[in-house]
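Hi all, long-time lurker, first post. I run a small reading group and we've been trying to get comfortable going from sequence to structure in the token notation. Rather than ask abstract questions, I figured I'd post a concrete chain and ask someone more experienced to write out its structure so we can walk through it together at our next meeting. Sequence below, copied exactly:
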Amino acid sequence: MSLYRKLAYFLYIAFFRFTPEDYRPYSLGFHRIRRLLVKQFVVNCGDNIRVKYNADISPNIRIGNHSELGQNCLIHANVSIGDYVIMGPDVKIYTRNHKFDDCHQYIQQQGKSRKETRIMNDVWIGANVIILPGIIVEDHAVIGAGAVVTKNVPAWAVVVGNPAKVIKYRHAEKI
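-- Answer (accepted) --
Happy to help. Here is the structure in token form:
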């Protein structure tokens, strides 16, 4: 990562991550500074993104056009977010997990596995959703609040629960 990207990331994490939302009368345009800094340090960033208060994001992510990173979200490295994605507060998108296969070694000593997680286009991720490593959420899907996504989500699906299950499809031809 270049020095310029590191500086933008530092300024975001240290100062501007906790600035008020744009709907607050005292926001003073801080949401624009958050967006500008994020555009400088992430791997790839589309136009007109929104970065909400306290979004904890890795510099190694991709964000599409017109997408929104929710308040208090946590997004690990190696996440791709498509165009027109919206997320509620407290969303967690993971790409790494602890290994625990060897019963003769402490879990802490077994290292971590990493898998890319992808959120495609026009996806709505509700509040408090957890998306586990390696998951692909296809286009036009809706993930209900509080869901824990352990399997790939098909296009047009509405998923809810823990573990998340398809309860219906948004598109009439899918029924």
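A couple of things your group might point at:
The longest strand covers residues 165-169.
The first helix runs from residue 3 to 16.
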